[in-house]
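tool=predict chain=A
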Amino acid sequence: MKKQPYILFLSKSQSSASTRYRSLNYFPFLKQEGLNPVHMNPKGSLFHKIAVLREVMKADVVVVLRKTFSFPFRRLVQFLSIKLVFDFDDAIFAKSSGGSSKLRMDRFKSMLAKVDHVWAGNRYLAENAEQCTDSVEILPTAVDLTRYKTTEAKPDNSIDIVWIGSSSTRKYLEDLIPILEKLAEKAPHVRLKIIADFDLDTTLLTTVPVQWSNENETCELGASHIGIAVMSDDPWSRGKCGLKVLQYMAASLPVVVSDAGVHREIVDHGKSGYLVKDESEWLSALTRLINNEPLRRSMGEHGRGIVAARYSYATTAGQMIGRLKSFLQKAC
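tool=predict ok
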């Protein structure tokens, strides 16, 4: 029996969102094509790292997600890999504060100097990678559209504006609370549903905290009316790949999002939602959607169509498989 090509993914733990969305969720598609995908977390003891390097030597293609590694482990992975792909969906070359970092940029450049190909999560990331290597393509973060139903029942006596995330991005939602409170003063039936690991204190706005889980996120999104996402415009934020916006659109929700970064690539302004810049635009866009149920429905349908065409695994898996098979053919 012919040996299945071995594709080794190296990244954070399997509970990490980047690991799930950019490796593990592709495994069923890869297996259907006769490939053998395996995930390993390179973090650990010296003995564990040696075990990882042994697998690197066996793999037909090694895919490193986000990790730039420190010397000498980085050089060993580069030297021992038959074919090496680097995949990233964050501005790992910048500080999370938005500032520049010489150390992070140097490690980023050193990693990309010895790879065969790069998958970048958005255009901004691809442009930065192209400064280091010629073989770069955009592989956008994708969602499993089949998980998002369009028949979830929505409340009749409230309009639920939903935000999904975690405490690490809580500050962005907090910045929006004064605007949402002004909105609630004129429309008291508006509620803020927070699908996360926290709630927010506000006396003027009704919040509906929902503990996030992989099992409940899709039905809770589908039972909402409008999705929101806040993003600053700096080097770190421009590296974000808009997962929450893709989730909203997959759930057929119209979106109101900051006019920044990857939001401009994903959202069809005026058709799937609104790109907004300041308080007046936030209030105007949200008010328009709150008062117009047919508009919410049409925008939600348009957004789901965008996800189906460009950001679903049915589309991106073919792109990934095609690239991997091109490496395997060259090796034959």
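The chain has two domains: 6-142+312-331, 146-310. Residues 47 and 53 are 10 Å apart (CA to CA).
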